Structure formats: C-alpha cells, structure tokens
Amino acid sequence: MNSENDKKDEVLYDADNRKKFEFRNPDEALFKTPKGLDESTVRTISKIKGEPDWMLDFRLKSLKEFFAHPQPSFGPSLDFIHFQDYTYYTKVAEGIASKWSDVPKDVKSTFDKLGIPEAEQKFLSGVTTQYESEAVYSNMLREVEDKGVIFLDTDTGLKLHPEIFRKYFGKLVPPTDNKYAALNSAVWSGGSFIYVPKGVKLEKPLQSYFRINNKRSGQFERTLIIVDDDAELNYVEGCTAPMYSQESLHAAIVEIFVGKRAKMRYTTIQNWSNSILNLVTQRAIVDDDGLMEWVDGNIGSKLCMKYPCCVLKGDRSRGSTISIAVASQGQFQDTGAKMIHLGKETSSNIISKSIARDGGTANFRGQIKIGPNARHSKAHEECDTLILDDHSYSDTIPNNAVLNADSFLEHEASVSKISDDQLFYLMSRGLSKAEATQMIVMGFLEPFSKELPMEYAVELNQLIKFDMTKHGAIG
C-alpha cells in the first residue's frame, strides 16, 4: 500500500464522530430508586409519578409475571443477567421542558452534542427527548398541534388522555408475552405517546431520542402510537449511550395501531454502546388496507434481541421490515422480523442485511405465519449476510408456515464474503483497501440506507465507516 493510500485510510478514522456519542455526564440525579427490583421499587415508581390505582395494579401483576416467567428459550443465553444489580428508575429533571433553555444544563449539553435541537429546526414536526428514565423535553410545531395530533411522553399521555391510553395500552404486548415485556410493564417510564386523528397526514417526521448516561442502570420506555383511519405518520427513533465496563439494561415496548387505509413508518437507528443489553418488543396491528413499515437499524449494543412484528389483521393490509444488523467484536445481534397474516389478500416483505466481523455474531431470526383465513395472501423474505473475516459468525433461522392452499411464501438467504477480485478491481481504480471495502459494504446496505431521510442516511454512513475502522476491519 502506498503512502497516499495510507493517508486516505487515516482520514476515514473520524475520532470526533465517536466522541459525539461516547461522552458522559456526572451522575446528578434528583432521585433514583435503590438498586434492585421488588414490590417496593414498583410502588415507589408509581407513587412518584402520581399514577391511578389501575396502573399500580397493572405494574404489580406484571412484576409477579416477570419473576415467574422463564428466560427466552431461543437466541443467546441471558442467564448471566443479575436483575438485582440494576437501578430501575432515575429522575434528572423537574418536569418536562418545552424550551431547550429550560432543560438542565448538562442534559441540554448532551442533546446539543447529538444535534437534536438542530435537527428539530430543520427536519422535524416535533421532538421528545428522554434522559435515563423520563422525558426532559417535548415540543411540536403549532400547525401540527392544530390538526389535533397528540405527541407527548407516555407518562403525560396517561395523565391527559386516560380514555385513549387505557383503550390501547398493553393490548398488543401484554405482560404475559415474554419475560422482558413483563419487566417493562412493571417498571416502565417515559417513551412516546402519539395519536394522529383520522385523515391527518404529517409531512415531516416526529422524533424521539433516548439517552442512557449511567452504568448499571435500566431504561424501560413504553411507546404507544395510534394512527387513525386514512392518517399517515413517519416516526424516527434514535438512541445512544457511553461505554462502561459494566452493562446497562434497555428493555422497551412499542405498540402501534394502524387504522384503515392508514400508513405508518417507524424508523430506528440503534447505536447503543457495547455495554448495553438491548431487549425490545415491537409490535403493530394493521387494519383493512393499512400499511406498516419498520426500518430497523442495529449497529450498537453488546447483545440485541429485537424482532419488529406486523399483525396483518385487516383485509388487504400490508407490512414490511427493512433491517440491518452490524456485529463486531463482543457483539451478538440476534435480530429479524415477524409477519402474522390474518386478513385476506394480505402481503408482507422482509429484507434483512447483516454484517459480521472481528468475531461478532449477527443472526437473522424470522417468523412468517399465513393463517387459515388469510386466503390469497403473499409473503417474501430475503436475508443476506456479509462476513468480513474467518472468525465471525452468522446464521439464518426462519420459522415459516402457510396454513391455507391459496397463499404463497418466498424465502431467500445468502452468506458471502468480500472477494479478492472485487477488492483488486476497485483498488486498481485508485481506491485504498479501506475505501474499496467501505464501498462494497455500503453497496450491500443500500436497500436499507435508501429508505432513510437523507440526513439520517448520512449519519448512518458515518457510523458504519467509523465502526469498521475502530474494530480493525479496515486498513
């Protein structure tokens, strides 16, 4: 490699890019529960939030379910998690600000460094930011609010809109669903509560951003979104945390209700540090002629288990998931998607792109079920993995079933490596090995990145380039 190309490689290592996420603030909590989880923890969380009795009862029943429910029987073992080692609730601010100037200084500095206020001004209809266990800032454009759109943190949604809240909360993901759904249901705090009225179509996305600052803490946001008939919403979620030697736990729940002829897109760029355990349940139910789209990016976390799900209840309803998972040293990405066809003439599409390198594991786990009444339905599943070395691992684990004779399902899977011929060709055109590798990788991920708004696609490209350089896959 000549010196000119070596210099090119050096340019690709953007240390400032990682600093954007890797900084940490002093622990200056106004209140936190003692370490560990028991009934008193749950009662304290509910009391400090001033919740109604029915929510406390829901939490306590969920806690019993959590202790009784076994760990998942699939995927990586989670037996190493010691639940009594975590802090389950941390409050850093009094109330939720509608002006950035009213957010506590250190917390505001965090979101300034992450570029959230700037993005709000340029691209978004509204923003909610959460720091540790609770939202600290929430705001929405006046013209969006005038259309009757509700965009609040979930705690405020419970207080201000109890009828809507109680009608939908916990109906798609009950505490009995899995151990971590029960855990979230017991100690949930924060998240986004969104209602888009009939016929309202938002031109700009709404965004929420979640930040964990402390070690050995837990973040358990609960997001509830209702997109009524003929309405449209594009929602973007981001999340980061600094690196610690001891892990923190993130176990969120997302429930989405898509009305008749409504359209919903939920985009996640998950860039947790490698000390986060990311165990999330995301599910949407879609009515007649509705459309649900998951755009799911998983770059960070020590261990990630996440399978966005569409329940295609209505006739001619549609669901899609386009996802990436990038696993480097010390990372286990067990991700995928689920499509449950119940209505007639339903359709679904799953496209998954995984990259494994430097000893990382990136598995795809998918489920497609076309029920006996889902006549004349169709599903397509495509999962491709790119392995960049000889000591990384990837597996494809589909679980598919067609239970009527009038529907069909397609499944494709491939695992490949970057060939020497590809590298030689690109390097013969003047690219360094690093640049050639990046070009191949970004081309591989193009089906995902093209679905992102431009500003998020640029950010994703920077993250991928940095992460590859950091872990020695380039250069």
Explain what the structure shows.
The chain has 475 residues and is an alpha/beta fold. The chain has two domains: 1-31 and 420-475, no CATH class; 33-306, no CATH class. Helix content is 28%, strand content 34%. The protein is built from 14 helices and 24 strands. The protein has helices spanning 3-12, 15-22, 39-49, 53-68, 105-113, 116-123, 142-145, 154-160, 162-168, 179-187, 420-428, 433-444, 446-449, 454-470; strands at residues 31-32, 90-91, 126-131, 134-140, 150-153, 192-196, 206-211, 218-219, 222-227, 232-240, 248-250, 253-258, 263-271, 276-286, 291-298, 303-306, 309-312, 318-327, 332-341, 347-356, 361-370, 378-387, 396-402, 408-417. The strands form three sheets. Strands 5, 6, 8, 9, 11, 12, 14, 16, 17, 19, 21 and 23 form a twelve-stranded mixed beta sheet that branches. The radius of gyration is 22 Å and the shape is globular. Residues 1-19 and 471-475 have low confidence and may be disordered.
